[in-house]
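Appendix C reproduces, verbatim, an entry submitted by the partner laboratory led by Prof. M.T., so that reviewers can inspect both the input and the predicted structure.
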Amino acid sequence: MEKHKLKLFEIRDLNAEINGLVNMQTGEKLRGGLLDEELTMTQKYWLTDLGKKAKTLTDEVEPLRQELIQKWGDKTGEDTIEVLPWKEETKEDGTVTRIANPKFFDFEREYTELYSQEREVETRAYFIEDFDFKTKNNYPIFLSISTSREESPLQVVK
């Protein structure tokens, strides 16, 4: 097993890389992940394991993200609160202009601080050579925790 220090935003992104990107409000799958690629059952097994870890950690942080949105956001609909980088103002002549939303900068500061926290994630050793498939997608976080067999400090038994 290997231990990796990942920031919470990297864990969130790893979750999306493995399980696919999902719209958090609607649950709609916007993009497939590694598990949607043509993989062997063994590869899917180990990626499902890693995906569960990443999803669990992502889900742990979600209530805190929601709390930040509640704290800094503005009600934009009946059940919708958003933190937008701008606010619209209507002038006396009826023209609408956008100005910077000062709450957004406070939200962004706290959000960045939260998602910059590190967690240690224990995984099996993932070797790039074991994932020999063609894809149009990019999986930078997964690749960052993977290694080449030649570079690995682990003894490879054939």
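The two ends are 18 Å apart (CA to CA). Additional entries are available on request from the coordinating office.
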